[in-house]
Amino acid sequence: MNHAAAAFWRFILYPTRVHILCVLVALCSCIPIIFPELSPAGTARLVHRYCGMVLLASMGVSALLMIISAATHMLRLSNTRAFTQFFKWLFIWGIGLALYILLAIAADVPPPVSEQENQPIQDSDTLHSPRDQLNGPASLVIPIETKEQSTDKVAGAPNLLALEKEHAELFKSYIDFSPRWSGQDGDDTFYTKPGHLVMVPPSTSGAPGLVHVCFRQLIEGDPLPQGYSVVQPGGDFPEIDKDNPQIPDIAVDLGRNHFLLLAWRGSAHRETAFSAINAAISATDARMQPLLDAPTPATVQRMLNGRNSYPGNTPELRLSEPLAQEGAYQAELYANPGEPGVILVYIKDLATDETLRLLNCPARFSSNPDELFRHDLPGSMPDWIRSSTQGDISNIFPENTPLFAIRIGPQHQYFGVAFEVWFKPSDVRVRRRMLLRRCYKVQAYEPPVRETLPADTPQA
After folding, report:
1. Residue 64 Cα to chain centre, angstroms
2. What's the rounded mean pLDDT across residues 96-104?
3. Higher pLDDT, 43 or 389
4. Residues near 309 by Cβ (< 8 Å), separated by ≥ 6?
5. Domain spans of the chain, in order of start
6. Which helix (H) or strand (E) element contains residue 26?
7. Are 209 and 266 in contact (CB under 8 A)?
8. Cα three-residue angle 112-116-120, rounded to 5 degrees
């Protein structure tokens, strides 16, 4: 009993170890607050609330023990020991404060957005449906022209045929690594899976339409997806069933069991559909011309990278929602910070100011103030950050698909978000700065329901 009593009085009179433990707990609770990207997506506010409670509790326990210890020593007329306990407490928490300042410097916490910065930067920066076209090689929506396109015969594909015949491996390497064709990995219903190309012709009489395009290579003996009709470049279109006016999906035979799949979705008018399909074939074929002209791995890399810089001096953000892929987004940022660093894109809910997503990519830069560099988002976020910030959104899309979701939920569930684009210099002595802020009206992404089918049942 005497041993327990002695231990209790040592705990009350000399709580130095408890102070150190409380400081460590307080520092650990500060980490999720000053590094918000470590908090799971959608739970940042809850995590910050609990961390704040732990921080206050640790400070309160330490301060209470210091007061009790100092008061007990004074009652025992040991004023020197009382002041010693007080100064020990100040010294330990001073070290904790210094460590917190170092953490805050490393985190480079952005300053609060001022009232002026919180307003739209330009008149067009308002809530709107983001369907702008992108410029980069990963753009999944391409406008096409249908003028002077034949509707009697399938368009020729000389570049595709030549590449398949003479440079099959180079052709395959481009298709395998291009984000534009990332929806072609063995999924029969490619046009329900994000990542493939959508070509949009001009609307006719106000009736919209589009052509889904995808490459598909079959293993010998495997059937094409159900409903596709095989056609030859320059051959006849399949006949339209009078009882079923739906325009048939076609598979252009490129040889060696390699096909270009095209699916028209829009008006059942024959001329409208076939002219759009031919325009899509011609556009796809034309985009392969550089590889045919210079069939080398370097050309493949140039096609995969696309054009990196454009003239201009005002940062710009382009957000696109590919057609028929509601709730899935891709974006391009045009900026030139003038020094090495990292681009950080915070996507915040306008109603709650909660950070829904954090995207990043290495900054491209030069000393030319009139040059803007294209940055493709979501970028290459490190795995240790990606796993903690994306939550249940992390594995929705294939790895090389240039798409990201902002929130999961029913389609057409719209909400307002702000895209805050920050630049964090490599020089830790320089504070991060905001490059631009844009507001959009976006919708939640609803992942498609996967049906379990027998192994020998083709998918529609």
Report:
1. 47
2. 84
3. 43
4. 364, 366, 371, 372, 373, 374
5. 2-107, 141-304, 311-443
6. helix 16-34
7. yes
8. 110
